[in-house]
Amino acid sequence: MKKVLFAALAVVAVGLAFAFMPKPDAAATSSKTEVAEGAINWMTWDEAIKANEKKPKKIFIDFYTDWCGWCKKMDKSTFADPAVAEYVNKNFYAVKFNAEQKEDVVFQGTTFSWKSGGRNGVHMLAYELLDGRLGYPSYVYLQPNYERILISPGYKDVPMFQKELKFVSEEHFNKTTWEQFSTAN
Prior knowledge:
The chain is built from eight helices and nine strands. By secondary structure, the chain is of the alpha/beta class. It has one domain: 3-Layer(aba) Sandwich (Glutaredoxin), CATH 3.40.30.10. The strands form three sheets. The protein has a five-stranded mixed beta sheet. Helix 5 runs parallel beside helix 7. The longest helix is centred in the N-terminal third of the chain and has 18 residues.
């Protein structure tokens, strides 16, 4: 009788242990190639660089911070729009980059690190690509050879963001300025 009672308690204990274990993060357990339909395929900096080496494509970088309310609004509205996601995925490698992250990034033989200062410090790759203009959200568009095309600060609604994506992806920047393009289109 004691053996049966002990076995039953062991089964209940194991069941309770599994019931109260934290569930794994879906992003951590799914592969990067599985992207929800209508969602942007966000990559890390390193993933985008590797993908660009295999198949060159323009790079779109969303510089955000954890405390930025407009960044969160951009995620929930503009970036969540299925037409925006489809266009971004077709024409760019999209990078989500925390401008205050503390992990080093090695790019083209240079190590970019986090530096203290300001509210929560800054990652020097963000500082470099944004020319030191650290307002969030901010976006940077790069050519496949990593030459910067455009720095774009601030929240954008879907129509404005689509216009900006078109300006970059269709290379209107070679013929006109963003200001002229945005007022004419």
